[in-house]
Amino acid sequence: MKVSVVSRSGKDVVKGGLELSDSATVADLQEAIHQRTKKFYPSRQRLTLPLKPGSKEKPVVLNYKKSLKDYCDGNHLTVVFKDLGTQVSYRTLFFFEYLGPLLLYPIFYYFPVYQFFGYKGERVIHPVQTYALYYWCFHYFKRIMETFFVHRFSHATSPLSNVFRNCAYYWTFGSYIAYYVNHPLYTPVSDLQMKIGFGFGVLCQICNFYCHILLRNLRSPDGNGGYQIPHGFLFNIVTCANYTTEIYQWLGFNIATQTVAGYVFLVVATLIMTNWALAKHRRLKKLFDGKDGRPKYPRRWVIFPPFL
Ligand SMILES: NC(=O)c1ccc[n+]([C@@H]2O[C@H](COP(=O)([O-])OP(=O)(O)OC[C@H]3O[C@@H](n4cnc5c(N)ncnc54)[C@H](OP(=O)(O)O)[C@@H]3O)[C@@H](O)[C@H]2O)c1
């Protein structure tokens, strides 16, 4: 079979096209493109079917598992190639974004950084600041461990640019919150409020971990299995029980530490996770539409507080 690989503007990406066997898959085509141009390894390639001129539809993305024959009738196929840029594994992306807050936060607790901001006096450390340090470090350590030992990702890689974007988000917020919670002029909340906040937060972190175990069990160890209907525990009520418990564990941290910086992060993180949860809920409803023998996605809240 003859395959022409063109850019979106119609230029030849692989000069003269490629000749592949009739039983070749999209993965074989990606490998053949890689052989011709070394820098375009398979996860860097996005292959789609060409659109008719003036069409406003979304192009069909080629599935690497499918046969090329599934995408054409005759013996010639034209595919549109897009370079996704340098890729990194999801584990690398998550590791670096969580490593920042894990290392930066203790710097504000242990080192005399406030002297550089003009505070010369002796710094008294309140118990809540020590517990906040433990809580914070436990949270990010847990997320790194989950990244390596719990999550079963379906996407192999992410663009390198996401590492910089995500690190900017986590590292900046981590430093911003650490600065205020460990500040020499920090005023602690009452003992009772601190206990309620951390107690509730730890409970939510345990629930969040359990939600991640339930998500893990939806896929086989090699990450196959696609998207399934999450069920059990809080997933019987909300589609994104993991985001819900994540939001509430930050609320617990904020009840205990009470800083504007912490609440700003809570609002931003809630907006981001709600947006993602809406997309995940829509995807599951589309996948499980009750037609052609597919199960129907049960009626659930997207996230709690409810957005339907
Ligand atoms: N503080 C913040 O700003 C913030 C923001 C986002 C996340 N987080 C925390 O980080 C955690 C991980 O985030 P995430 O966005 O990666 O979570 P996620 O997409 O909901 O899921 C975690 C893992 O479960 C898989 N999964 C999700 N739904 C599934 C389904 N229906 N069927 C089969 N597998 C499914 C995902 O697969 P895929 O690889 O296919 O996605 C991923 O590997 C969150 O739960 C939360 O605790 C915090």
UniProtKB/TrEMBL annotation:
Q: Which domain of life is it from?
A: Eukaryota
Record key words, sorted: Lipid biosynthesis, Lipid metabolism, Membrane, NADP, Oxidoreductase, Transmembrane, Transmembrane helix
GO BP terms, alphabetized: very long-chain fatty acid biosynthetic process
Transmembrane region(s): 92-111, 168-186, 198-215, 260-278
Gene Ontology molecular function, alphabetical:
oxidoreductase activity, acting on the CH-CH group of donors
As for subcellular location, the record says:
Endoplasmic reticulum membrane
**Domain 3-oxo-5-alpha-steroid 4-dehydrogenase C-terminal as annotated: residue spans:** 157-306
Q: Give a GO cellular-component term.
A: endoplasmic reticulum membrane
Annotated Pfam families: Steroid_dh
- PROSITE patterns under this entry? S5A_REDUCTASE
Does the keyword Translocase feature in the UniProt annotation? no
Q: How does it sit in the membrane?
A: Multi-pass membrane protein
Record-stated family: Belongs to the steroid 5-alpha reductase family.
- Protein name per UniProt: 3-oxo-5-alpha-steroid 4-dehydrogenase C-terminal domain-containing protein
